[in-house]
Amino acid sequence: MSGIVKTPQPPYYAVIFTSQRTDGDKGYGKMAEKMEELASQQKGFLGVESARDNELGITVSYWDSLEAIKNWKENSAHKVAQEKGKAEWYTNYSVRIAKVERAYSFET
Amino acid sequence: MSGIVKTPQPPYYAVIFTSQRTDGDKGYGKMAEKMEELASQQKGFLGVESARDNELGITVSYWDSLEAIKNWKENSAHKVAQEKGKAEWYTNYSVRIAKVERAYSFET
């Protein structure tokens, strides 16, 4: 998974997940990969963009509806990951659910 | 500037800027810093979150209205930076303007 997602014409939805990690991997990398794979199999998934540096991680996933987002939030494997996230991987995070109303892009 | 922004209760707006850089700094770091400073002085600015790794940069800025976003887009110093961005700094980028409808966070 990498790069900028080719999303359809708006409207669609974005989940902006911003996080700060605890020290050490503690199984995070493997689980993150697994979650991305699982998410991409969900109905309504449009793509995901991720970047992480020493201060912050930002993952934006795109979805065709609020229902698709809700279904993913309640996915049982994802729920296990969410609990591990709170217990071990993140010192803090923020989740924002937003409706993309306009979009444009630039390519060389 | 760092960390997760304390945004007000939704609704508010997010500009999701995802980019891939050309090689080398070419004045980018300095300009990025300057733009962040300028943006933070704009009316309606709520905060910004940024992360960049080798593959992708994601900057999400938060605003209280579409008008505030429009004003920032049309800011003259910002326009100069936008042109430099296309000419020198980015191989490609995507801008998505979204209305944040729901948000929650976690802190240890």
UniProtKB/TrEMBL annotation, chains A, B:
Keyword check for Oxidoreductase: yes
Record keyword Metal-binding present: no
SUPFAM superfamilies: Dimeric alpha+beta barrel (SSF54909)
Keywords per UniProt: Monooxygenase, Oxidoreductase
Entry-linked InterPro entries: ABM_dom, Dimeric_a/b-barrel, Jasmonate_Hydroxylase-like
Annotated organism of origin: Paenibacillus profundus
Gene Ontology MF terms: monooxygenase activity
Transmembrane segments: none
Domain of life assignment: Bacteria
ABM domain span: 28-84
The protein's name in its UniProt record: Antibiotic biosynthesis monooxygenase
Gene3D superfamilies: 3.30.70.100
